[in-house]
Amino acid sequence: xxxxxxxxxxxxxxxxxxxxxxxxxxxxxxxxxxxxxxxxxxxxxxxxxxxxxxxxxxxxxxxxxxxxxxxxxxxxxxxxxxxxxxxxxxxxxxxxxxxxxxxxxxxxxxxxxxxxxxxxxxxxxxxxxxxxxxxxxxxxxxxxxxxxxxxxxxxxxxxxxxxxxxxxxxxxxxxxxxxxxxxxxxxxxxxxxxxxxxxxxxxxxxxxxxxxxxxxxxxxxxxxxxxxxxxxxxxxxxxxxxxxxxxxxxxxxxxxxxxxxxxxx
Length: 265
Ligand SMILES: [Mn+2]
What we know:
single chain, alpha/beta, Purple Acid Phosphatase, chain A, domain 2, 2 domains, five-stranded mixed sheet, 10 strands, 32% helix, globular, binds manganese (II) ion
């Protein structure tokens, strides 16, 4: 049995399927998706369908994009609940109308950062597919059932798989992050500097290794570092697949934790 980790697929469903073929993923293996499986790329619908029909040997970890996507759906449902006539949950038209209403409310606020459906994901799911509020509710529930991290063992040492960063207690990170959950979803260089698993390994994504200015820049290859004080190996396996049209060395990565072998698509 082998354990594979893939992170930040970002709707790149075709590359994800190519990766599963490349690693010869089988029923005897385990696969952990370390978050941000959706948004940015074109095939979020296919990813969501695959995620909800996933085999039993696949575990889903929550990323900031899943968290935010679920919160936009929650917001739509709250606003729908306050209306005089509620939407028909089986109707794509009703979902589109509600989406237009919520979008309108936020547009009126003239906020500098879009606070609803930031990547247009819900808009294109409703516009390009026959998606309704029942579908959105089901995906919201699936996301809220997803844990923030997955703990296992590699070579007799503890191994934590998380979207952005892992810290063992809130005191390590409290000056910069209000909660451990924020750290799991949003940590950048702090995941190496402050976080870690004592005498273990942390596998994360979140920060694409394709951007020169970031701590994990490695020309689109997996980034690895070692914290001597904690005796912890840290991996950033987000190689920026969603940006591959613009950046040549961007790709999808996968790590097999038992021997730390890395695969690229
Ligand atoms: Mn992320």
